[in-house]
Protein 1
Amino acid sequence: MLELIGRLTQWLECHPHTVEVAGSNPAPPTNLFMLFHETPLPVFQFSCLSQFSFLKHAVFTRKGGYSQGAYSSLNLSFDVGDNPEAVKKNLELVKTYMGAKRIVWSRQIHDKNILIVQDDTLPPFKGYDAFITSCSYTALLVKLADCQGILLCDPERRVIAAIHCGWRGNVCNIIGATIEEMQDKFGSAPSDIWAGISPSLGPCCGEIKDYKTLLPVSLWPYKIKEHCFDWWVISHDQLVATGVPSNHIEIAHICTVCDKRFFSYRRDRKKTGRFGAVIMLTNKK
Ligand SMILES: [Zn+2]
């Protein structure tokens, strides 16, 4: 109960829903709670994605892994200065938790390159910020510290995607590009797609000081206070713009800068790890 009250308080602090955002869709983002499981490896799961029996997904925290110090403990990135042996063991934990045949990830570069993963698509991958697959037991992993992990599922075509989206991802609209690829390559209808937006930079902490130089004018209406933007609503609206129904979208409403269960690039002043958001199809009916 205390956990629930804590979560409610945190959610209210992190999400000023009463703020009207000009340019936003009339309906506010769907506000479903994520489900939290305090197993030896704590995970969050989206309610909206948990309805599909053939789908497995998780948003991990920074807890439950092998890394030490600033990377303690479930750091999933080889690119942040951590001991590679610890990272390998952490990735193995994720793979085992998911029951995956393999786990696919890339060195992410905040652009909009999308990798279609087939059974014969081989690593190493570099320069991809989104993955799409219809292959079973192939887990798609994005690595996060304030950026959004956006997990997508089209249950009709049995296609999934994972997107790494920071503010640069919103600027280049990697969300729209990924859904376009799901349409073009797999015949997905956006109206069938369900989406979860992971814990990430909240409106409370979403500051872009030099926004007039860095952000297109189309994003300026999402500024909710001095230099602070609501990146959750921006992603919601970018999904809706492609045709994904608003009530298919679940936002975690957890700010990674405020919530110390997660790695945060901003809070930890760059020296930190990356937690994971991962999604996988199984063969279950
Ligand atoms: Zn915050």
Protein 2
Amino acid sequence: MIVTALKRSLEQNILLKCQLLIEGCNIDNNITFPQGIHLQKTHLYSHSSQTFKETIPGDILFGEEENRVICRIRYNTASPFKIVSFDDNFFIQNEELELHIPITFIPEIKCGGENVQGHILSTVCTLLGDDLLGVIPSNYCFYFKDNKQCRFCEIFQTFQKEVEYQRPLKKIPIICEAISKALALEPRFKHLAVTTGNISSYDYTFEYMISIGKQLLEVLPYAPQQSLATLMPPDSPHLMEKLGQTIFNKVDFPIEVFEYSHFLTVCPGKGEFGYQKIIDGLVQAKEVFGVGNSYTNLVYGIQSLNSDLDPKSYDAQKENEKSLIAVESFLKLGIIPGFTLYHFGGYNQIGSIPLDSQKTFEFFKEWGEMVYLSKLVKQEEDSVLFSPLTLSNTLYNDTFRLAKQQAGV
Ligand code: SF4
């Protein structure tokens, strides 16, 4: 076995992460993972439609020091990448590419087994990446009731099949106690992300988030550095100010798709709410939360699909062109457009799209440069959101760091 000995650049590591997210990775059947590592938990959606013989680690780390990246394991037996172990050391291997790279895992959190009003803490909230506490108040979204859910969404189906907490909606005192205990007991938690589907109305969902944020302000042992609320904007604009007075210092209103007519096809429920209303909400959020704290999210991989959402209509070149137009437009408005990679866990209405790794990498690289040059993110920050070892399932923090590194900062 040849272990890749030369120090790999950040750019090489990001390209590998991109390949691993798109192609997934296989796992040697004889492997025994070490004790005390953080194992995969289903949070928002499924990361694989296949299951290994035992619970696998959530993420892997590879690269040295400033070039280290974190990457989600998407188990896929057909992938040319494979996790193997020799003498209690672990590697990502790709025989065709003669690649043998040492990997490590994220240590488990100490507080996962705590009792929260009769619930196990780790079923209410979870570690994401290396330092983020993630909570989903509601895995349900009222768009599903009328079949108006976003066509790529797998949140509700994943909940029905895989999530451990028994109800889609969690009670506020349970959420707040779980967050409070987790922050008190685990010093690794630096940031908080609360992400919810629509509950009974846009204003009700927003008020639900406000109540969580307000109670947290009263009970938390310390405020996380970054606290992000991800939901739809409210119908009543005055609620935005109220959210700004809580623990939350960042908001994300995902628009998912940039071109208006395509947005209506992919996101019929959001289409009824109104494309322009989401943009207006983002602009208002920038005023309330400050520059660099208003985010939207788009799904990379579906922007180029035709109106039938046929996976075969994905066009890598067009995907980049359309996505870059979106990036430029949002940056002009002072809004940061995050992108997640389209992924099919077996549940949504679009199906599998084999993304082009090289083109995907090129898009995110350009994204990093554009966002870095926009100066919407403070110069001292190494990430666009949270920290470099937080977001294991997308590439934008990594390519922002790359742009900064290449600018010699
Ligand atoms: S708004 Fe769309 S993506 Fe979000 S939970 Fe509802 S259906 Fe899913």
